[in-house]
């Protein structure tokens, strides 16, 4: 594989790695839950989701623990724990509730985070850790796959050609012996080459 091909492959791999969203932190997980709790429980906002878009704990894609009792009564999107809009299931745009500004909502959520019980924080940390482990596993497998492809390309490439300068000094019949001698540890094992034997 040429240097330009290797550079192109590395650039493509780095681009994909950078474009992959990192998993939610524990606070990000809490934000998703508390946002829906405030909207649905405190402001009586009804989510505009179809049945197939509603989160179910039995979903095989979800690997986290059961929701804390506080949030078991709210309706969540099926991908509420997945970061990155590009990876989330495409849904129809939901109209804004218009009952609270994002700034005030964020302040309320931040205040709730500092006062929430340990069970909620533990749940958020567990979901975050699962997401991080999955992210690292996917990145490891991706890098390993690209490394394997690069190694195969290197092994199937042609042998390096001997330079024309080397051919002038050593005739073709002497090249094998000369290369073998160059790889030996003890130079005294190499046949002595004098200037009279060189076809200059």
Task: Describe the overall structure.
By secondary structure, this protein is mainly α. It is 52% helix and 0% strand. The chain is built from 6 helices and no strands. The chain has helices spanning 3-19, 26-42, 102-115, 118-155, 164-169, 172-183. Helix 1 (3-19) packs antiparallel against helix 4 (118-155), helix 2 packs across helix 3 and helix 2 crosses helix 4 (118-155). The radius of gyration is 31 Å and the shape is elongated.
Average pLDDT rating? 75
Can you summarize the main beta sheet?
none
> Which structural class do you get from the secondary structure elements?
mainly alpha
Strand content: under 5%
Q: Count the beta strands.
A: 0
How far apart lie the N and C ends? 34 Å
The H-and-E topology, N to C, reads as: HHHHHH
Principal-axes geometry comes out as elongated
Helix content: 40-55%
In angstroms, what is the radius of gyration? 31 Å
Low-confidence stretches: 162-191
Number of helices: 6
List keywords for this structure.
single chain, 200 residues, mainly alpha
Question: Quick gist of this model?
Answer:
The chain has 200 residues and is mainly α. The protein is built from 6 helices and no strands. Residues 162-191 have low confidence and may be disordered.
């Amino acid at each position: 594989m040429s240097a330009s091909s290797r550079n192109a492959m590395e650039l493509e791999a780095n681009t994909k790695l950078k474009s992959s969203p990192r998993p939610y932190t524990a606070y990000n997980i809490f934000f998703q839950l508390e946002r829906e709790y405030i909207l649905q429980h405190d402001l009586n906002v009804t989510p505009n989701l179809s049945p197939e878009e509603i989160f179910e704990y039995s979903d095989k894609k979800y690997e986290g623990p059961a929701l804390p009792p506080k949030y078991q009564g709210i309706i969540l999107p099926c991908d509420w724990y997945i970061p990155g809009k590009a990876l989330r299931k495409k849904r129809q745009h939901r109209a804004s509730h218009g009952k609270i500004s994002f700034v005030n909502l964020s302040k309320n959520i931040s205040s709730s985070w500092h006062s929430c019980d340990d069970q909620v924080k533990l749940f958020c940390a567990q979901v975050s850790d699962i997401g991080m482990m999955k992210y690292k596993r996917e990145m490891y497998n991706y890098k390993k796959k690209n490394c394997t492809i690069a190694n195969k390309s290197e092994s199937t490439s042609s042998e390096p050609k001997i330079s024309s300068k080397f051919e002038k000094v050593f005739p073709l019949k002497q090249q094998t012996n000369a290369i073998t001698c160059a790889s030996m540890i003890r130079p005294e094992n190499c046949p002595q080459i004098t200037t009279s034997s060189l076809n200059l």
